[in-house]
Design a protein that fits this description.
Elements lengths: L11 E3 L2 E3 L2 E2 L4 E4 L2 E4 L8 H4 E6 L3 H14 L3 E7 H9 L6 E7 L1 H10 L9 E7 L5 E6 L1 H5 L5 H19 L2
Length: about 170
């Protein structure tokens, strides 16, 4: 959210090009699908930005299966963040297992970066494997359509749809 004391739209850069915002309603400046709210709050739910499922696999089994299925779909895991271990080390807090896998398909990443060099700020696709309150394992995936759709470019939307279909196949495997 961007707050401002001025009601005058301010030009900004999106996608490497300078944009002139258009007024699209009270307190909202819109350029493509990206919205800046002045004094208003736009609420996103997790369902808007990610999708997932609960699995009968253990946490470690789910990580192994997700990693293997990502590889079958052309993704590598560039990063693996053990959130529970980090919280323990940095804050002394205990929490159930929680890992974030940064998944990247180089072919899709190359196409997206070629179309929009600044898109790297939205990459890679995060896949979360966590244990919930009841002890069940949950696998959640960033929705590339929702996140990459912020760019508002048709060629990026097509790439995001292809990536989503591959991630959905990975999710079906767990």
């Amino acid at each position: 959210m961007v707050t401002s004391t001025s009601t005058t739209p301010v030009p900004f850069t999106l996608g490497g090009r300078r944009r002139k915002p258009r007024a699209s309603g009270r307190g909202v400046v819109r350029c493509h699908r990206l919205e800046y709210h002045c004094g208003n709050t736009r609420k996103f739910t997790l369902q808007d930005l990610a999708f997932g499922k609960t699995t009968s696999l253990t946490h470690d089994e789910a990580i192994a299966r997700v990693t293997a299925d990502l590889a079958k779909e052309g993704f590598g895991v560039l990063t693996e963040i053990d959130v529970a271990a980090t919280m323990k080390k940095k804050l002394g807090l205990e929490m159930p297992p929680y890992r974030i896998l940064g998944a990247c398909n180089p072919q899709f990443a190359q196409r997206a970066l070629e179309a929009e060099p600044q898109i790297g700020a939205l990459l890679p696709c995060n896949v979360v494997v966590r244990t919930n309150d009841t002890g069940a394992t949950v696998v959640e995936v960033m929705d590339p359509g929702a996140v990459l759709g912020l760019v508002g470019r048709p060629e990026i939307t097509l790439i995001a749809a292809e990536v989503r279909s591959r991630l959905e196949r990975v999710l079906r495997g767990v």
